[in-house]
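4.2 Preliminary Data

To establish feasibility before requesting continued support, the project team ran the inverse folding procedure on a target of 134 residues. The structure was first converted into the token representation described in Section 3, and no sequence information of any kind was made available to the design step. The complete token record follows.
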């Protein structure tokens, strides 16, 4: 799922939840839509690792969980899309700082550093490409 799709799922959960009651994923995704249910379950597991939902309990056909107040805060702060933007900005910042060092360090050392950081540069480029698709 894209960051935008994950954020849409969060919005649906927040709109349909009843404070103090467990939430069932089937409230927003039909149980017979197995593909979408599986994707959404992965997102719920991720939110659980972040402490935004708790008490995750898979059942035979559904996924039950409790929505924590952190989920609403996360959503208000831009959710997964904002998280992706911040991640990309941090990578760009590191690459910019290293490029500023180019004139201050030996050329061989600079090349070694850039080789180490090459995967980050690719990630930043991929993140920019993906955000352009949304």
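Position-by-position output of the design step:
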């Amino acid at each position: 799922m894209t960051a935008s799709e994950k954020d849409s799922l969060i919005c649906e959960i927040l709109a349909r939840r009843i404070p103090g009651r467990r939430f069932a994923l089937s409230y927003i995704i039909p149980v017979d839509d197995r593909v979408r249910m599986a994707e959404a379950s992965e997102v719920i597991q991720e939110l659980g690792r972040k402490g935004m939902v708790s008490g995750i309990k898979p059942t035979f056909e559904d996924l039950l969980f409790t929505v924590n107040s952190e989920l609403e805060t996360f959503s208000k702060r831009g959710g997964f899309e904002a998280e992706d933007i911040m991640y990309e900005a941090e990578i760009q910042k590191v690459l910019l700082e290293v490029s500023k060092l180019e004139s201050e360090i030996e050329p061989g050392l600079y090349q070694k550093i850039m080789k180490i950081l090459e995967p980050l540069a690719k990630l930043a480029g991929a993140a920019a490409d993906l955000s352009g698709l949304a």
